[in-house]
Write a structure and sequence with these properties.
The chain is an all-alpha fold. 85% of the residues lie in helices and 0% in strands. It has 5 helices and no strands. 24% of the residues are buried.
Length: 122
């Protein structure tokens, strides 16, 4: 398994665990919880890269991590959307809100893995 793939899979696993913890035990929900979990996952992903690799990710690595992470989460979100559709067809606004929740994860990862943010934290 390639280096970016390892970080992407780890990020997805972390996002799942944090979602279960926050939404089940802490009872935090909505877009606030999504933003909090997406930021925490991206921050821990960037921190893990920094501590393990002891360097800033190269631009190619950064984008492979973000796209793989976003792609894997996208597949999970599509599965969740399919399950929601089987129960009751969501409205267009519901699908848009669902898309916003999903996009928080890859956008936060792209921001926190960016060279600008990464080099400021030493």
């Amino acid at each position: 398994m390639s280096l970016p793939m390892r970080y992407a899979v780890g990020g997805v696993a972390l996002a799942i665990v944090l979602n279960l913890l926050f939404r089940s035990f802490v009872k935090v929900g909505g877009i606030f919880a999504t933003l909090l979990i997406a930021a925490a996952t991206a921050a821990l992903l960037a921190l893990a890269f920094r501590l393990i690799q002891r360097r800033v990710p190269e631009p190619g690595e950064r984008w492979r991590i973000v796209f793989t992470y976003g792609g894997l989460l996208g597949l999970l979100y599509l599965g969740l959307l399919a399950m929601m559709t089987l129960q009751d067809t969501p409205s267009p606004m519901g699908v848009l809100l669902f898309l916003v929740h999903y996009l928080c994860y890859p956008v936060m990862a792209a921001l926190l893995l960016s060279e600008r943010v990464f080099t400021k934290v030493r």
